[in-house]
Amino acid sequence: MTAQLGTPRGALLPALNFSVTHVGLQTSQIESARREGRQVETTLAATRIVLLALNAVGGMREVSQMKDFFNWPTWQAPGIPKPSHEWTAIFGTETRAFEGLHGDAPAGGQPTIIRNSDHTRVTDAMWQMLQTQECVVLCTGLAGDPTSAEFGAAAAGGKLQAVLARALFH
């Protein structure tokens, strides 16, 4: 997917390439604990959540520009990133597609609007997760169309920046 960016925040980014996928994120919530003698076996719950990876078109220079533009904290994967009250992911209910991002305006400024030019439909499983959780993980840090192995290595290596954002349906 490509997106057009309209923002008063400074220099415009030429284009953004969005990859939409879902991953299972481990939470620190305890699902069960069982005692055997002196040991306690603890099982942590796994939460499945939709992740939107905003992959830069181009190389490392473009990745750096995206990191600077969004300025999200480094993601301590596999945990769920810190919530953002600034960003909202917009989804169309008729098309079941990711349509773009809305960034709240800084004091006295204009909001940032990123429109996705290709309204790509999300899978039924992803749509169900979005409707249930009403949030999505947004992340940056990769370029092109990364493989799951490249994405996993970047997440494990602390090379991704991410926030947990509200999902808005219209």
Sum this structure up briefly.
The chain is 18% helix and 49% strand. The protein is α+β, with helices and mostly antiparallel strands and 170 residues long.
Topology:
Elements: E1 2-6, E2 16-36, E3 39-56, H1 60-70, E4 83-92, E5 97-103, E6 112-116, H2 124-133, E7 135-143, H3 148-156, E8 161-169
Parallel strand pairs: 3-7, 4-8
Antiparallel strand pairs: 1-2, 1-6, 2-3, 4-5, 5-6, 7-8
Protein described:
This protein has 170 residues and is an alpha+beta fold. 18% of the residues lie in helices and 49% in strands. The protein has 3 helices and 8 strands. The protein starts with a strand and ends with a strand.
As residue ranges, the low-confidence spans are: 1-14
* Spatial ordering of strands, largest sheet: 1-2-3-7-8-4-5-6
Order of helical and strand elements: EEEHEEEHEHE
Measured between the Cα atoms of the first and last residue, the distance is: 20 Å
Q: What's the main sheet like?
A: 8 strands, mixed, barrel
Q: Quick check: average pLDDT?
A: 79
Structural class: alpha+beta
Cα shape: globular
Task: Note the total helix count.
Answer: 3
Strands, count: 8
Helix proportion: 10-25%
Portion in beta strands = over 45%
Rg is: 17 Å
